[in-house]
Amino acid sequence: MKMRTLFLIVSVLLMNYAANAQYVFRGTIENDAWSGDAYLSIVDDYRKISGVHAEQIISKTSIVDSYFEFKGNNLDLENRIYRIHVDSCDENVQSTNHFNGHCDNSQEIIFIANNKDTIDLPISGNNQMFCSIQSTNIKSDVIFQIDSLKELMRYDYGDFRSEANRKLNNRKWFTVFQDFGEQIDEPLGELYIYNFLSDRSGDLYDYYRQDLETNNYYEKLLNRLNLRYPNAVYTKQYENELLSDKGIIASQSQVFIPYITPLLVVSLLLNLFLAYWLLKAKRTKKENLTNQLTKQERKILELILQDKTNKEVASEIFVSLSTVKTHINNLYKKLGIQSRDELKSLYNN
Question: Are the C-beta atoms of 193 and 181 separated by less than 8 Å?
Fold first, then answer.
């Protein structure tokens, strides 16, 4: 009888706790450029973890005196991936930008949270919206840590640019990211790493394909996801992608396949469609971005893709070096990039 009474008391307490659970995500915007509204999104598709996606937005709040706050109790009690973004797009084109998943003038932060979390988002000034995360959830800043690791990787790649150095760095950083993923003990953070390493449009995709053939890390990650988040959409998405990629590798490694299962055929067809869709989307994106450029900027773009230096570009189009630098800055801003390497990656892949 006593045990039954104790069980009922604990059950009531747990129900009250769940009913009263409430999240609070708040921050302060120092830069006057970020005014208007802030948007909270839930990321169910980790392939759309970054950007502006209208279908993911679950809440909007006004920025008042540089402060914004999201509060409620309608989120999942399990950890999920969330994104807050602000933008300074003109109101007349804002809806279009959100629909297309792109906004030139925007900043975002991606974090892990649940319905019980209180998160403060301190910021730096100038071009950076957020610089750190303070949260009741020790896993909230995992993605921020991974982004910091990416910055170290980019610095490492830029130290000496050669094909040999790139290959060595590919092997090194795959191991670094995977080891870090296991250490953080948060499968959602590992999915963020996987999304980066297996991006079909990225420089590391070929190495990922090779790694998938021999490394059992990916099966271990699936096990961790099934244990921690068995019902999450991320887990099923990852399982399907893993099956598809392995099917492609298996089909390419055999000269003759006597029997192909219907599942493998469907997997191959889906992967072919996805590859075609990604290629078409990338071409469309490049065309849309290029159409924003002036005639002079397009000429400079062509010369940069030919590995011309700024001085050579200035001589080619008969303008001063400072004018070339101004055009390049405008070019980078319109394309949403920050370096020649990013420009070449955008147009040469």
Answer: yes
